[in-house]
Design goal:
The complex is a heterodimer of chains A (121) and B (611).
Chain A: H1 2-34, H2 38-60, H3 66-79, H4 82-87, H5 103-120
Chain B: E1 3-4, H1 6-14, E2 18-20, H2 32-38, E3 40-44, E4 51-54, H3 61-65, E5 75-79, H4 86-95, H5 113-128, H6 136-150, E6 154-163, E7 166-178, H7 180-184, E8 190-203, E9 211-218, E10 229-231, E11 239-240, E12 243-248, E13 255-256, E14 260-262, E15 265-267, H8 272-288, E16 303-305, E17 310-312, E18 318-319, E19 327-331, E20 334-335, H9 342-346, H10 378-381, H11 395-436, H12 444-486, H13 506-509, H14 513-535, H15 540-558, H16 562-584, H17 586-610
Parallel strand pairs in B: 1-20, 2-12, 6-19
Antiparallel strand pairs in B: 2-18, 3-4, 3-5, 6-7, 7-8, 8-9, 9-10, 11-12, 12-13, 14-17, 15-16
Classes of the chains: A mainly alpha (121), B alpha+beta (611).
């Protein structure tokens, strides 16, 4: 009865707040992307991740929203393209396979790291 | 057995390696005779307690060479020292050079989840299989230090083998103890340790009596093959004149070409097909779809990194020519004046404690000549093949080997040409026969048979011609390569390496204390989390997923990989969502793809017509 109504109202308010917050983040991310900021790229990926999580949850609950899921997929695959990441100066941390590293650069870097370690100890 | 000449001994001296040890190392190469004098000889028969055959202080080489090996499964072994009680071990460690050793970043922080799980299983297995008693490493170290105080010297055992045009100069090093596990958090401890360096030289044709150094090979754990060796002129190698520098790992005494910290790798068998499939998927993802990081080369075979570190920093004692400590040369073969040490051939037992370890990791070795089971070790009977050098001709015979192969190819080419002529004649004969009986209804069976033979003959002719064309290309490349050899070009010195052991990257070493703490507790965290979830019935599946998600997030956080984690997680979600959409709309997806294909074909064909 009344308690249920209160619960539903609270739930709706929470959900609305969450969507509004997400919307604000999306706007901020959009402005950042116009300015080609790398944080905007990351924020956009996080927002799409949240959107897809909600979309998959709704799907398994029997309330799918296929169009939104499709848009999210397209956006993510687009943002994940190498050229797009480069355009947003997204740092790509990439470990070279062991067999291809330059021994000289490793030697110098290892000595430096161990000197730092020795100073700390 | 070969008799060593004065020239052989001089060769050994000329290329003596310089061994660079790690700070904290307790054991250095010593002579076998002093070890035997301190040790006792024991026997372990199946289902019996170990027995002492010769007590400490009374053992001689004669005892070792008079043993009978006919008792099935009985193991003869030496025992150098007694374990110290915990209080004395603590006191020893506080006063020894071990206190100067700092492990740096935790070993578990350098590897992933699978390797840490492996470490957990390994730790459990140590409780169940035979192991060296605690305190024995400290006992052996005290014993060794007592011997060194009486008379400090360091020696290696030299051996010279001539085979396949190479002269293999073997430098064998005997250590009283391998304390990798107890002193440096490694895999195992065992009494006695044999390691070896080989320098491969060839005779200089232009200067009689002179030699040219070609290759080096360093022993490292139980590895063998191409990755053990390096070319003498490899620019990455460190040498002082003719003396190669060897970085010896603390405790394990594995030998490395470069200073640093190593995470040994183990090749995972039977995964080549999986690696090939994965390579294709990666190519499609990274190159065709241009997703994610730029393409990088993948190793040919799958491997896992073992979460134990070989510390080969080279910041400790150095032994060798022009160093503070130099070598005493001993020999494993006879000379004109002296016989070979009797124990080389005569003793097949273990050089240290036998623990009964099921995987033999904690058992002493039986080298230099033998395996633990008494059979001859490959390092001994095939020093050339042990490092994969048996397929590589020495530089002074490389051109002759190439010319030999070219002649064989030319002979093969002549034979193929002859076969092509015969096959062509056979084929034309069949075709004539087919035409002669064409259209005759009562010859249907024969017509079908002749057609079948024509198809077979055509395929065979095509195969022969293809082979001839390939051989022609190979012969042309051989001619070019011969020119390169004549002009003195030797090619890429790293071409033979597949999965060489290289020091860990700086990224692995620079991890923060948070990462170290997390890696130490992460497996425990996973196990406890699993227990908590398992108690909450009905929540098991999603609970495990959330647990793994939290684990992966924390792993990324401590390794400063949050951005990569987010990207990978979101792309993973996108792939799952794509799969859901394809499943739900499969007919529409297929129709759309067909429509797109049709449009593309129309556009391409119209473009072609216009061009």
């Amino acid at each position: 009865g009344e308690a249920e109504d209160v619960q539903v109202t609270t739930g709706v308010m929470l959900l609305s707040s969450a969507y509004i917050t997400l919307g604000i983040f999306a706007m901020v991310s959009g402005i950042g992307m116009l300015r080609m900021r790398s944080w905007a790229w990351l924020m956009a990926m996080i927002i799409q991740g949240i959107a897809m999580t909600i979309g998959l949850f709704n799907y398994f609950q029997g309330q799918p929203s296929y169009l939104e899921m499709l848009f999210s997929v397209i956006i993510v695959f687009y943002l994940n393209q190498r050229d797009i990441q480069r355009a947003f100066s997204v740092a790509q941390h990439q470990k070279e396979p062991m067999s291809l590293r330059t021994v000289e650069s490793d030697r110098a870097a290892t000595a430096e790291a161990q000197a730092t370690l020795a100073r700390r100890n | 057995m070969t008799v060593l000449s004065t020239n052989d001994i001089e060769l050994l001296r000329r290329f003596e390696p310089i061994l660079c040890f790690n700070q904290g190392e307790q054991f250095f190469p010593m002579d076998v005779e002093r070890y035997i004098a301190e040790a006792r000889l024991c026997i372990q028969r199946p289902n019996e307690l170990p027995q002492t055959l010769v007590p400490r202080g009374q053992l001689t080489v004669d005892h070792l060479i008079q043993l009978h090996y006919d008792t099935a499964s009985a193991v003869y072994y030496l025992n150098f020292a007694e374990p110290l009680p915990p209080v004395q071990v603590r006191e020893f460690r506080q006063n020894s050079s071990l206190r100067h050793f700092h492990a740096g970043q935790g070993r578990l922080a350098r590897v992933g989840l699978l390797a840490r799980l492996g470490d957990l299983l390994f730790s459990i297995s140590l409780l169940m299989r035979g192991r060296v008693p605690g305190g024995l490493a400290a006992g052996a170290a005290m014993c060794y230090q007592k011997l060194q105080k009486q008379h400090e010297h360091y020696c290696y055992y030299g051996r010279v083998i001539r085979e396949h045009g190479y002269i293999a100069l073997q430098y064998w090093f005997f250590y009283a103890f391998n304390d990798w596990r107890s002193s440096f958090n490694g895999v195992n401890d065992h009494e006695a340790d044999w390691e070896m360096i080989t320098v491969y030289v060839t005779e200089d044709e232009n200067e009689p009596g002179a030699v040219i150094p070609c290759w080096l090979a360093y022993s490292s754990h139980e590895f063998e093959g191409d990755d053990l060796r390096r070319r003498w002129d490899d620019p990455d190698l460190e040498r002082e004149g003719n003396h190669p520098l060897v970085y010896v790992a603390a405790g394990s005494h594995a030998n490395y070409y470069f200073r640093g910290e190593y995470l040994p790798t183990a090749t995972v068998p039977y995964v080549q097909s999986i690696m090939r499939a994965w390579r294709r998927v990666r190519y499609f993802w990274q190159t065709t779809l241009r997703q994610g990081d730029a393409p990088t080369a993948l190793p040919e075979t799958g491997f896992i990194r073992i979460p134990f570190v070989d510390y080969a920093r080279g910041d400790g004692l150095r032994i060798g020519p022009n160093q503070k400590r130099n070598w005493e040369l001993r020999l494993l073969q006879r000379t004109e004046d002296l016989p070979a040490p009797a124990w080389v051939d005569g003793y097949r037992g273990l050089w240290g404690l036998y623990t009964g370890d099921l995987i033999a990791g904690e058992d002493a070795p039986a080298r230099p000549k033998y395996h633990r089971d008494g059979t001859v070790h490959k390092m001994w009977y095939d020093p050339i093949g042990w490092s994969g050098l048996d397929k590589v001709p020495p530089p002074n015979t490389a051109l002759a080997a190439l010319e030999r192969q070219q002649r064989a190819l030319l002979d093969k080419q002549a034979d193929i040409t002859r076969q092509i002529e015969e096959q062509a004649q056979h084929l034309t004969g069949l075709e004539m026969e087919a035409q002669a009986i064409q259209g005759l209804s009562y010859m249907r069976t024969q017509i079908a048979e002749v057609q079948r033979q024509i198809q077979t003959a055509t395929s065979e002719l095509d195969r022969l011609k293809s082979q001839r064309a390939t051989n022609a290309e190979v012969l042309e490349r051989c001619t070019i390569y011969a020119q390169q050899l004549i002009s003195g070009q030797s090619g890429d010195p790293h071409a033979h390496l597949h999965l060489p052991q290289l020091p860990a990257s700086v990224d692995d070493i620079k991890l923060g204390r948070g990462a170290e703490t997390w890696s130490a507790i992460s497996i425990g965290f996973l196990l406890i989390g699993y227990v908590v979830i398992a108690q909450s019935t009905g929540f098991w599946g999603p609970g495990v997923l959330i647990l793994l998600g939290v684990y992966t997030f924390l792993e990324a956080l401590f390794r400063h990989q949050i951005q990569n984690f987010i990207r990978t997680f979101v792309v993973g979600l996108a792939l799952i969502t794509t799969l859901v959409l394809v499943v739900e709309f499969f007919p529409q997806v297929v129709l759309t793809l067909v429509l797109l294909a049709g449009l593309v074909i129309i556009i391409e064909n119209v473009r072609e017509i216009r061009a």
